[in-house]
Each structure stands twice: as structure tokens, then as C-alpha cells.
User: Which sequence fits this backbone?
């Protein structure tokens, strides 16, 4: 009887030690690295792999074990960590961390390409930030029209990390502030050349829509400056596209001969000078082209089928280029 009693004690002790050991191992793998730690913003880059992200979590002390996070995420049916921003803390255990990542980021990456009119920008923001039609339309009609000079062209093309719950009017201000930050680099040069800032952006928006690539932009800028200096109409297709608006083929479908007769102050085939506002939001290269245009005598240009630009000084030369390249 004494022997059995001792054996029972030994077995219970071993079981208890095993349980304690399992709890220790579990804590070291799945437990929170640091109790009582505050929330921090953790950014997952757009091109970050799952492995890179987990290594960063380990390196910054957010998790104890990659394997434990794999298990926790696997139990949530989440094979990857979506890029974006997350509020996490070293006080989270692996299961808490899996809950956060499986819920998706609270800040999302939004890419605004160069040369978009604000309706196109609104479509991207609506998709990425889950706006409804009412919010999207308000962004176009109200939040981007609070300043007369900010109606178009100042929603800078860039990559943004935006909170999902940021209000549309705040998003408009975010993009405007980014424009102001970027244009501050060019403001001194614009003043030195006695060019108003909105003139720079108007011309840059035309160049952005007309150029086949950044290498064309200084030459197109030189041509446009020449036309303005000679009092010629600018004859820019992109301004007609802007005036025409959306078609079944999008905002920037090729124009027709009939389109050139549209009665709009944006139609530079009918009216001399620059349009009332920019027609799109230009990028850096287009802005720089306005301020550092190529010296040229050309007042005409076209692109061939390979997107190579050809300019001409006279209309007769331009007609020959049309026959040769188009």
C-alpha cells in the first residue's frame, strides 16, 4: 500500500511537472512578450512578403515565435498579412495578434497615379476606403471645391497610407497638403521666372496628359510656351477630353472632329490661352518641365505609333510629319 501511494504521488508530480512545462513552453511560444506595453503603429509595406513581416515582428519584440503566429493565423484561415497599418502591442499574445491581422489593416495603402482628374481620384479613394456613392460624389463636388484655385490639379499623385475611417474632407486636405509640400520645392523658381503657381500647374497638367513619357515633357513645354507667346490657340486634345467628360470608353477616350466644337472654356481648339483650371493632377516631372522647358522653335508636335515625338516649326512641316508618321 505504501508503495502504491508513493507511485501515485510520483505520477501526479510528473503529470503536474508536465503540465507546468507545457504551460511554460506555451507561454514562451504563444504568450505576450511584454505585459502592459502601449499600442504602436506597425506598417506592412506594400511589397513586403509574409516572411519579411514576421521577421520584423520578431525583431521588434511583438511576437515570441514565428511558428506560434503561423498556427494562430492558420486557425483564423489567414495565410498572409495584408499590407497596411496595424495598431498592435507587445502585450498581445499570438492569438490577439492573429485577431488583429485577420481583421485587416486600419490604415490602407492608396496609390494615386499621375494625370488623373479628380473624379478618377475619387473612384480610387472610394474603392480603397469603402466610400459609398454619396461620399464619393461629395468629395468631387464639395470637399475639393472649397477653394476656387484648388478645384482641380492639386490632389497630388503619390502613394498614401490613409486611415480607413478618415473622412472624405480630411482625405482631400491630405492630398492638398502633399501638393503644397511638393510644390514648395518649386515655388522659388516659379517666382524667379515670374510665373504664377496656378499657371505652372495648369501647363503641367496639359503636359502630363499630352506626353508619352517624362522624356517628352520639356519639349512639349517648350512648344506650349511658344504657342502662348505667339498668341496661338493651344489646340490640346486633352483639354477637349476634359471638357467632354466621361464617355463609354472612359474619361480620356480619343476625341472626334465634332468634339473640337464643344463650347467650353476648357476647349483650347476654340479659345485662346490656358483653361480656367488644371485638367488633371500633374507629377514632379511635368512641373519641372514647365520651369525648365526645352529651347525650341517648334510650335507643333505629334507622336508616332511608337510614341516617339516629332515637332515642327511651321504648319507645312507639321503636315509632312502627319503624312510620314501617322
Assistant:
Amino acid at each position: 500500500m505504501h508503495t502504491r501511494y508513493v507511485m501515485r504521488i510520483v505520477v501526479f508530480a510528473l503529470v503536474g511537472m508536465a503540465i507546468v512545462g507545457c504551460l511554460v513552453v506555451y507561454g514562451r511560444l504563444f504568450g505576450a512578450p511584454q505585459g502592459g506595453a502601449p499600442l504602436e503603429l506597425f506598417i506592412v509595406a506594400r511589397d513586403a512578403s509574409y516572411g519579411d513581416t514576421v521577421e520584423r515582428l520578431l525583431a521588434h519584440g511583438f511576437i515570441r515565435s514565428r511558428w506560434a503566429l503561423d498556427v494562430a493565423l492558420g486557425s483564423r484561415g489567414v495565410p498572409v498579412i495584408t499590407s497596411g497599418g496595424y495598431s498592435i502591442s507587445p502585450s498581445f499574445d499570438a492569438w490577439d495578434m492573429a485577431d488583429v491581422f485577420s481583421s485587416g489593416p486600419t490604415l490602407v495603402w492608396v496609390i494615386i497615379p499621375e494625370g488623373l482628374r479628380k473624379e478618377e481620384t475619387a473612384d480610387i479613394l472610394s474603392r480603397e476606403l469603402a466610400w459609398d456613392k454619396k461620399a464619393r460624389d461629395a468629395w468631387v463636388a464639395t470637399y475639393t471645391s472649397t477653394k476656387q484655385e484648388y478645384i482641380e490639379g492639386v490632389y497630388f499623385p503619390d502613394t498614401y497610407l490613409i486611415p480607413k475611417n478618415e473622412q472624405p474632407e480630411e482625405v482631400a486636405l491630405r492630398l492638398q497638403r502633399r501638393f503644397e509640400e511638393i510644390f514648395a520645392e518649386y515655388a522659388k523658381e516659379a517666382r524667379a521666372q515670374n510665373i504664377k503657381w496656378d499657371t505652372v500647374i495648369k501647363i503641367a497638367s496639359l503636359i502630363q496628359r499630352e506626353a508619352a513619357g517624362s522624356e517628352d515633357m520639356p519639349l512639349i513645354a517648350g512648344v506650349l510656351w511658344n504657342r502662348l507667346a505667339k498668341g496661338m490657340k493651344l489646340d490640346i486634345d486633352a483639354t477637349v477630353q476634359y471638357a467632354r467628360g466621361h464617355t463609354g470608353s472612359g474619361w480620356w477616350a480619343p476625341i472626334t472632329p465634332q468634339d473640337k466644337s464643344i463650347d467650353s472654356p476648357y476647349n483650347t481648339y476654340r479659345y485662346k490661352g490656358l483653361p480656367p483650371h488644371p485638367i488633371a493632377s500633374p507629377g514632379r516631372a511635368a512641373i519641372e518641365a514647365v520651369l525648365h522647358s526645352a529651347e525650341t522653335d517648334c510650335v507643333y508636335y505629334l507622336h508616332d505609333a511608337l510614341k516617339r515625338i516629332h515637332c515642327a516649326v511651321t504648319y507645312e512641316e507639321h503636315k509632312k510629319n502627319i503624312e510620314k508618321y501617322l
Notes: The two ends are 107 Å apart (CA to CA).
